[in-house]
Amino acid sequence: MTIHYPNGQQPRKHYSASRDLPTPHQSIYAKRGMSLEDEINHSNQYYLANHIAVIHKKPTPIQLVKVDYPKRSAAVIREAYFRRPSTTDYNGVYKGYYIDFDAKETRNKRSFPLKNFHPHQIRHMRECVDQGGICFAFIKFTELDQIFLLPATTLFKYWDQQSDGGRKSILLKDISAAGFQIHYRLNPRLPYLDAVDQMIANKE
Amino acid sequence: MTIHYPNGQQPRKHYSASRDLPTPHQSIYAKRGMSLEDEINHSNQYYLANHIAVIHKKPTPIQLVKVDYPKRSAAVIREAYFRRPSTTDYNGVYKGYYIDFDAKETRNKRSFPLKNFHPHQIRHMRECVDQGGICFAFIKFTELDQIFLLPATTLFKYWDQQSDGGRKSILLKDISAAGFQIHYRLNPRLPYLDAVDQMIANKE
């Protein structure tokens, strides 16, 4: 789940408590370290600023219900709801390749629960792979502070095995074996395009 | 401008008048024909359903201010504002190529005003072109009911000429000469990937 997409999660204090415009995430999370999303966004800003890649997080889709249009000031959304995204959260272009991925965190220490993915996200990634895109999942084991890039094709294999009585999660050791571990660096914080380069090489 | 991004435009009746969830655009616009956005979304649905391309419109970015979390029901956004998108509205993947474009409508009959583009959209398209993406503008002359795909590189040329004392708009005849006219069809309504095929051919 992305942090912008509550549906049923606990209230987010920085929204419900504050009537001011939200501060950027890095300050929201300053006290408890960055979320995976913030780390990815920072890395994408670095890649963009250095003309290495153009990858952005998509805005959270909103269902508008009521919008006021006060005179001489900006439109105010007075009633709206979070909608389930129909795609993954991140996409863009790198070296001419279409890049598409989603980012997930788990507090588990031994395996990643597949229920973190929605069927429509898997379907979207299949469609992108069929069109020649480079698709993967960013998976962070927060308690272990370990981050992996798991190629979508590997994710599909475990996803499909569920319906054949397979396990509902992917073991860390399997993610570690089939994926690419991303080690923190200063700039970019998450140098994940190095792993993407390997995926591109394997693809060709 | 996308219809989801008012900033200063007239109130949208179907938002301000209705407290119900908005109906899909095709019904909102049924009485006055489809907007260019609706026509593009329909075409993208066709391309997706037929495994030809995966191209989606990005959600409109929203600045959340206040979100309520009622017990046992979905989070309700109580105060939020439309933010200016930092990229174009549409992107995706087709035959392994990264596709990125924006759609603009004008009521003019002789030329397309460049002020319809924001500098950040031009910058984003330059970055995507530098990464090997296929970028263009969807331009509709609503009064003439003529639609063109204008390659981004051509758009950049006219955009840059403004600062050298060039005109602030692109003449229809120049768009017609440098771009690709899209003629309505039943399915997809706007077969614009035919023009993209030519852009890809010219690229190689």
TrEMBL record, chains A, B:
InterPro entries: Resolv_RecU, Restrct_endonuc-II-like, tRNA_endonuc-like_dom_sf
Site entry (Transition state stabilizer), positions: 104
UniProt binding sites for Mg(2+): 87, 89, 102, 121
Cell location: Cytoplasm
Cofactor binding, per record: Binds 1 Mg(2+) ion per subunit.
Keywords of the record: Cytoplasm, DNA damage, DNA recombination, DNA repair, Endonuclease, Hydrolase, Magnesium, Metal-binding, Nuclease
Family: Belongs to the RecU family.
The name this protein goes by in its record: Holliday junction resolvase RecU
Organism encoding this protein: Limosilactobacillus frumenti DSM 13145
